[in-house]
């Protein structure tokens, strides 16, 4: 079966509607989890017509617009090693032109302490700003993205969200990283439905308390099952159109090589 990353890259550059369908639904759910007021039709209008419909805050509009571009970048950039610089770049792309950017919080690790408000209003302690660089270096060096299991992804996600390295946007960046890791490891993407937000938060907290990633793994497994049910055409293309997709990839590569000028020695 064709790998998921190649499939999405070809769909991204081919008129089909399938890529955009996945893109807007992924963004609708991940942003909704963080309180975005955009409906699915409103995100589609923003993508297709570059027009904002509905009543939304400035930051919600800008972050939704930014997330459309960040999604594409992740799909193209999934093979790049995940470094602290790359992580801050993703955050900069998500937060540019927002109020957080005006305050100097975009693309940098947090400057003042923050915390997580968990289930039932419980306050969850996270790392202090001065601890973040060392903690993130350790976390980023701990895993080889190309060899991560679902359990590794859950452990990474739990630790990332517990460090909470940015002033804001940690949840969305964390779920974008899950997408990147799934593409790098050829795993079905993890798209957590906004309707499952409470189960997701409960699993994060339960995994912290019990020091076991299994509650979070179960949520991720459910999300992967939902992916194949929600996007059957992507599965069908991976299974039944492998040669056609590879032919398109070869043609695109040939065109790129023709456009690249030869350099003399």
TrEMBL record:
Site keyed Important for autoinhibition of adenylyltransferase activity: positions: 34
One GO molecular-function entry: ATP binding
Domain Fido: 82-222
Protein name: Fic/DOC family protein
Top-level taxonomic group: Bacteria
Residues annotated as catalytic: 164
Organism: Megasphaera vaginalis (ex Srinivasan et al. 2021)
Gene3D superfamilies: Fido-like domain
Binding site for ATP: 168-175
Keyword field: ATP-binding, Nucleotide-binding
Secretion signal span: none
Nucleotide-binding listed as a keyword: yes
């Amino acid at each position: 079966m064709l790998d998921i990353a190649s499939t999405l890259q070809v769909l991204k550059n081919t008129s089909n509607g399938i890529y955009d369908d996945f893109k807007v639904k992924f963004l609708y759910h991940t942003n909704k989890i963080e309180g975005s007021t955009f409906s699915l039709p409103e995100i589609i209008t923003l993508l297709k017509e570059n027009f904002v419909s509905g009543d939304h805050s400035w930051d919600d509009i800008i972050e939704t617009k930014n997330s459309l571009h960040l999604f594409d970048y992740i799909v193209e950039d999934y093979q790049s090693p995940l470094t602290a610089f790359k992580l801050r770049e993703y955050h900069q792309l998500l937060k540019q032109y927002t109020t957080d950017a005006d305050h100097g919080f975009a693309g940098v690790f947090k400057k003042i302490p923050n915390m997580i408000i968990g289930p039932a209003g419980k306050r969850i302690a996270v790392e202090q700003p001065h601890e973040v660089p060392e903690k993130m270096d350790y976390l980023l060096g701990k895993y080889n993205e190309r060899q991560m299991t679902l359990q590794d992804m859950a452990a990474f996600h739990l630790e990332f969200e517990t460090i909470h390295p940015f002033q804001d946007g940690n949840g969305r960046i964390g779920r974008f990283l899950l997408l990147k890791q799934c593409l790098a490891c050829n795993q079905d993407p993890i798209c957590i439905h906004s309707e499952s937000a409470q189960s997701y938060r409960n699993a994060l907290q339960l995994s912290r308390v019990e020091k076991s990633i299994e509650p979070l793994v179960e949520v991720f497994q459910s999300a992967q099952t939902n992916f194949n049910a929600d996007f059957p055409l992507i599965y069908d293309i991976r299974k039944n159109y492998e040669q056609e997709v590879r032919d398109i990839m070869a043609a695109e590569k040939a065109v790129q090589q023709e456009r690249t000028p030869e350099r003399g020695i």
